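Sequence only, no structure available. Ideas?
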Amino acid sequence: MPQANIDQLVGFAKTASDLEARKIKVRYQVSNSVPSGGYFRQTFPKIADDMLDCRDIKMRFNLNITSTDALTCVDSTTVQSIFNRVRILSGSTVLCDINQASLCFQLERLVQSAVHDSPYEKYLIGDESQATRQAYPSSREYICSIAPLRTLLNCGALLPLSRMSDLHVEIWLESSARCLYSASDGSPDYNISDIELLTTYIRSPSLSAHFNGNPLSFHVNDVTHRYANVLNQQSLIRWSSAHTSLNKTITVLRQQSNVAAGDYPGKMSTFYSGANTQSYNAFINNVLYFEEDIDSQPESWQQFRSAFPEVKHSEFFDSDFNTTKNVFALNIQEAPFFHEYITSGVKTSNLNSDIVLRVNFNGTPSTPLQADSFLISDALIYLDTRGDLKVKY
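Reply:
I predicted one. C-alpha cells follow.
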C-alpha cells in the first residue's frame, strides 16, 4: 500500500494565492461572415497587467455549407482543414507563418487521434466518419485550436500582452474544392460566421514581479511547409531551411489531380501507396543520414514512431500504412527525454546545401505526384527591450 504524505492527510496552507483567471471572448466584428478563400484578422486585447494563457486558446465559429447535394461535408477529420494559412504577428513582426495549414492540421489529427478520445471532443472538431459528417446540418458550430500543438498560441507559455506590441492572428480560408467533398455538386461553397476567440487571461502580482526582473523567453515549435513535384522513378525532394535546430520532418505524397478535386473523398488522408516505394534516404550536408536506405514499411514505421511517439496510440494508422496511409518521417532530433532543455537537431542555417529526401519507387509514377513536407524546428520567442515580441530561428 503506498505511503501517504502527512500534508495529504491533515492538509496545509499554500504559501501563495494571488493568481486569478478570466475567460475573455474576442469577437470578430469586421463582418458577419468570411467566405471560402477569404481572410480575417483577430487582435488579442490588452487588459491591464493580465497575461494571455497560450495553453487555452480556441476559436468558435459556425460553418455554413451551401450545396445542391445534401451530403456535402468537410473532407477531413478536423474542421481545421478549412484553414489554408495561419500567421501570427507581434506588431509587424511575423512570429509564425504556416502555409498549407489545412494538411498540417489533418496530419496532426491523424497522428494524435486515439480510441480513448472523448466522442464529444471529436464531435466538436468533426473527427467522425464520412457518413456521420454527411449527416451534419448544413450550418453547425465548431470549436478548435488555431495553431498546431507546441507552436505559439498552442503551447505552455504566458504572454504579458500589456507590455508588448499588439498580438494578431491572421487566417486565410481554403477554397471549397480543397476542403469539401461532394459526389454530385461540382461547385459547393461555404462560409464561416459568428467567429470568436475563446481565451484565458491570467493575473498574478507574483508573476508580474517575475516578468519585471526576468526577460520573457521561451521555446516553441516552428512549422514550415515545402512543396515539390514528383515525376520520376528516383525523385529528389529538396528542403531549404535556415534554423538553429531542425528537429523532425514529415512528408506525404498525393496524386496531384486529387488535391483539389471536390468529388474525391479523403484528399488529405489518402496518400500514394507505400507499396510503390522501394526505399528512401536523406542527404544532410551532402552526407547520407541513414547508413543504408530505409527499404521496408515496418522500418519506415519505426522512424515515424521515433519522430512522433504519440502515433503508437493513433486509431488511423493501421496496416494500411503499408499502402494508402504511408508517410515519410525523419527524426533528426535524437536526444532522449531531456530534449526540451537540450536540442540536438541539425543546424540548417550553417549548411551549404539543401537537405534532400531521396525516394526510390518501383517504377515511374503513372500520374504526377505532389510532395508536401512539413519541417518542424526549434524557435526562441523573446521580448526585446522595446517591448516587441521577436523570434529567433
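The mean pLDDT is 92.
Hope that gets you unstuck.
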